[in-house]
Amino acid sequence: MKRMTPYDLYLKAPYPLVILPARYAGTYEGGFWIGLHAHGIPPGCHGSDLTCVDWWATWGTHPAVVVGQSPDDVLARLIARNLTYADILPTEAFEDKTEELYEWIGERTPEE
Predict the structure, then answer these.
(1) pTM for this one?
(2) Among 23, 55, 81, 93, which is most buried by a count of CB atoms within 10 Å?
(3) Nearest Cα to 10, choosing from 87, 68, 78?
């Protein structure tokens, strides 16, 4: 089998694509690196403990979200899913629920 060049990977990767290190080193995410088929980084996936655990519980199984042990691993997993633009992470995933979550547990938000 022919080894894939960076250009081959570029042609197969879903667009848009974000790969970044996990903020909590896999505690909530399940891996050290995160891959998102999305326009930007949702605030919840890198938020405070409370917002992060809520975001991953809600969106962590979405096809446009993958985790892995390295950026190459994440890219390979995204390519293997054969995602199209229709599979992109929806706008609901970008909603900032920090205030709502802190009200729910009866605490002030971290900014207060």
Answers:
(1) 0.77
(2) 55
(3) 78
